Structures are given as C-alpha cells and as structure tokens.
Amino acid sequence: MECHVSAKAGNFALDVNIQVPAHDGWLGIAGPSGAGKSTFLQALAGFNPSASVAGNWGDLSFSQARNVVLVSAQTPLFPALSVAQNISLVATHNQCEQEQQSVVSLCECETLLTKNTASLSGGELQRVKLARALLASPKLLLLDESFSAMDKALRQRILYRLKAYLGEQVRVILVSHDVDDILQTCENLAQINGGQCLAVGRPEALINAEADTDTLPLSCVIYAAVQAVDPAAGLMALSLGKQLIQVKLQPGVSPGTKAKVRLSAKEITLATADAEVVKTNRLACQIIQVETVNHRQYRVALSCGEQKLVALVSQEVFTRSDLKVGGPVYACFDE
Amino acid sequence: MDLAAIWLTLKLAGISTLLLMLLATPLSWALSRWNSRFKAVVQAIVALPLVLPPTVLGFYLLLAFAPDSPIGAAWLAVTGERLAFTFEALVLGSVIYSFPFAVQPLYAGFAQLHPDYLHTARMLNLPWYVRLRCVVLPALKPSLLIAAGLSFAHTIGEFGVVLMIGGNIPGETRVVSIALFDQVESLNYAGAHKLAAILLVFSLVLLMALYWLQGKRRLKWNVM
C-alpha cells in the first residue's frame, strides 16, 4: 500500500506519505490533536477539493476510488429524516436492503430506529452513522474517531464484529485516540504528527519501540497465550512464562489462542517482595534499565522472561524502595 | 367595493411571488456559495429597493419601459404592444421592488445549510433528487415560506412604483393601494375605509401566520 496526500487547511499544511509493504489488513492512524489525522481522511474522502491524493492500496486507487465512505463529525445524520430513514434511504440507493438488518444489529442500533436524530446521545449517533456508512457499500471505509463516545466494551465488541463483517473486501483506515482500538484491529499503524507521517509498522512494534510519546502513550504490548476465559467476570488469564496474569476479556478470544494486551506505563506500580500492593496482578520481573524522563519520574524497563515491560515511577518512591538495576521487583497492575 | 382592484392586486402579488421564488432561489444559492470581492456589489444592488424611495425606482423603470428605450423597444418588437402602463410592467416592477424580500431569507437559509450535509449525501451515493428532497428542501423550508410570504405581502403593499409605471387603469393597473388613493382624493372616505381595512387586516393576518409558524417550529426540519 502506498499513499501520498498533500492538502492545505488554513495555515496547516499536510504532506503525508505512507508506505506499507503488505497491502492486507486495516491501517490505524495515531497522532496528537491537530496532527492532521482528520485532514488526511477528509482529503481521501474527497471533502477537500484543494487536496492532492495519489497512490493505491492493492487494486484500489486512492485518486479514482469510488465508494470512499467517511464516518466522522463532518458526516452528520440528515436531521429531516428519522434514524430509520437515514439508514434505509442509504441502503435503498446502494442496493443494500438485504444487508440492512445485519448491519443494524452489528452496530447495535435496533432500539434506536424509532428515535429522532436530535434525541440520540453521542455514542448512539456514532453507531447510527457507522450503520449508515456500511450500507453505502464502501470500498474504502475511513473511520475518524467513530467510536470515541462509546464505552470501551461496546467499542471493542463493535470493532471486533466490524472486522469480521468487512473481511478482506473493504479497506479500512481507522483514526483513534485510543491506541487499544488500533492495536486490536489494525495490522499496520502510521504515526502522524505535524502534518507528516513519522513511522509506519506493526502497532505492537511501534508501541514497544516507544518512538514518539506524543503520538503513542508510553506502554508495552504483551502478546501471550490465553489460558482461560471467564465471560461472567469479563476476565481472561494469560500465561507469561510460568506466571499467570488476569486481564479484561477481549471479544473473540478463547483458550489456546494468543491475545495482545497493552499495559500503560502509568498503570504499573513497582513493589519489593515484602510490600503489600492491592492490585490484581503481581509479576516477578527484573529491572534492566532506569532513565529519567522528566524531573520527577523514572522510566523503568523490566524484563519478565521473554517479555519486556515499562513502568513510570516517581523518583522519590524509586529511591525510597531501594530498587536498583539488575535487582528483582514486582510489577503490579490491575486487570 | 372595488372587487376588480382586489382581484388585480392578488393576481399581481401571486405572479410576482412565483417569479421571485424562481429567480431568487438559484441566485441566493449561488450568492451564499460565492466568495469574491464583488459579492458586496451584488448584495448592495439586490438590497437597493429596501432603501430607495419607490418613486426613484419607479422613475427609472418608467424610463426603461418607454418605447424608445432598449427594454421598451424590445418588448414592443416581441409582443407588438407598449410595455409602460400595462399589467406586465407592474409585474416586472414588483419583482424588482420585492427582490430583496425574497433574496434575504433565502440567502440566510442557504448560508445555514452546512456543506457537510451535501458532501455527506453525495458521498453516500444519494442521487440529486433525493438530496434535494431529503436534505436541501427541508433545511430551506422555513426560508422558502418566509421569502414567499414577505414577497407576497410586500407586493400587495406597493404604491409608489405602481403609480409611476402603471398609472391608474381599471382592471389593468389599478391595484388596491391606488384605488384607495383615488377614493381619498375624491373624498369618498367610506370606500377608502373599506379598502384600507382590507389591506391592514390581510397584511396583519399574513404576517401573524408567518410568525406563528416560525414560533411553532412547524417550519423546522421535517420531510416525510
């Protein structure tokens, strides 16, 4: 996949060049507010007449693509129509009446159909917009913070189903502030900042590389085998070497498969052997590196067998706890 | 009572309103999407009838409609009749005179119709007639009704322009406001009272209906 977009929006100049060796899977875009993510998608959707777009994604040419469908704050529902009419009108004119029912249930819009568009909450609005977009038979689907107002569980559920529903037929670019959305659904991630693409790669590789903490929060991705799932509690157990950790259950995982879990450096607390820490998980690790990230905090790199972890710890606590490089420590975190 | 004058007034207002809506709608759309330094010039010309004394407008129109002017001569060549002091001249005058009353509400309506709605509708492969029926017209419904109502009311109330270019020909150019002036001049106050009351009540009711609909939000978004 190769994509070049240049556009001007006011004083902001966008010049994004993305190259992904393989052309399969979804592309995630991460970047701070004002990085140019939305401008990039709007240019691809043809909303910005002054933008220039080039490149192709497999057999899809970005400059000539038809059925490019954007879902964002710039694609409002039509206020003169009810929710059901917004959906069915688009389905009718795209010969997608057959899919209407399955798309509505995929986006969990069944109970929203009779409502007035003005009475929808933020998350409901996003679900209806997504359903409407899917019924426009997209070839390229551009999702710009299309799940931001949904709670995490709902978002994960819909994204998981969406990925299965679209299959290989539809190309997807997902812009999200939530790195976990991208980690769970996208095969590739592009980091955008200041109107330029800084890096492209596997999401877990880019997160673990800690290349740019402006676009990706300091964290590490654990890729481990699932030992057990507990749907009632919404938890699953992963094995890290001989140690087990409990984390939130992700849709579609079952014992025997592998799962990706991101642990934010801020969520990890370090503890010595005798300290009591009230957290769900306690992983025995070794400190392999300590460096100052700002005046008050250390970035502490840990190893747990093959797995690397990273924690942010206040310098005061670190010194008081008598921790040192090479020494043992417990990494404690909740599910 | 002067039924011929009332009928003529309604006919004039109806035809003028129809023409105004046909002309002002595309112009307002274009004007709302047009960014140029000449926009102010066009807007000023459109708004001129708001501030000019009707007699000034009527005077220039009278000159333009005369058989020796290009417009009057062209009309004479095509129809074989003179333009000045005819019903057709009144219609033309009314359209010009009421133009800002049609353009300004429509312009505001189009300016409020955010391009995102049209982009989205096109992106979702909705054909043009669906976009018009489900996106554009519902958003413009309030503006369309207000523009038509104001144009109609304003045409009924015109006097100066009619006097200048239409004169006072019964059944042809003698509208209610002229007939009222006649009655007063001939000191027939009873007749004048009737016509004045009709104009007053009619205009009041029309404006009340417009404001009532607006307040009720009946004019808000709604298609099917």
Oligomer: heterodimer
Approximately how much helix is present in the residues of chain B?
over 70%
Biggest sheet layout of chain A: 6 strands, mixed
Number of domains of chain B: 1
Helix/strand order of chain A: EEEHEEEHHHEHEHEEHEEEEEEEEHE
Family (chain B): Belongs to the binding-protein-dependent transport system permease family. CysTW subfamily.
Organism (chain B): Alteromonas lipolytica
Transmembrane segments (chain B): 6-29, 41-63, 83-103, 143-165, 195-213
GO molecular function, one term (chain B): molybdate ion transmembrane transporter activity
Short description, anyone?
Chain A: This is ABC transporter domain-containing protein. Chain A has 335 residues and is of the alpha+beta class.
Structural description of this entry:
The complex is a heterodimer of chains A (335) and B (224). With 335 residues, chain A is α+β, with helices and mostly antiparallel strands. Chain A folds into 2 domains: 2-212, Rossmann fold; 220-333, Beta Barrel (OB fold (Dihydrolipoamide Acetyltransferase, E2P)), CATH 2.40.50. In chain A, 23% of the residues lie in helices and 36% in strands. Chain A is built from 8 helices and 19 strands. Chain A has helices at residues 37-44, 83-93, 97-106, 122-134, 152-166, 179-185, 203-209, 315-320; strands at residues 2-9, 12-19, 27-30, 52-57, 60-61, 68-71, 140-144, 171-175, 188-193, 196-201, 219-230, 235-240, 243-248, 258-264, 269-271, 281-292, 297-304, 307-314, 328-333. In chain A, the strands form 4 sheets. Chain A has a 6-stranded mixed beta sheet with strand order 6-7-8-3-9-10, sandwiched between helices. Chain A has a 5-stranded antiparallel beta sheet with strand order 15-19-16-17-18. In chain A, helix 2 packs across helix 3 (97-106) and helix 2 (83-93) packs parallel to helix 4 (122-134). The longest helix of chain A has 15 residues, at 152-166. Chain B has 10 helices and no strands. The mean pLDDT of chain B is 89. Chain B has one domain (3-216): Orthogonal Bundle (MetI-like fold). In chain B, helix 5 crosses helix 7. Chain B is mostly helical. Chain A binds chain B through residues 45-47, 67-70, 74-76, 78-81, 85, 89-90, 93-94, 132-133, 136-137, and chain B through 114, 116-117, 119-121, 123-127, 130, 134-135, 138-139, 221-224.
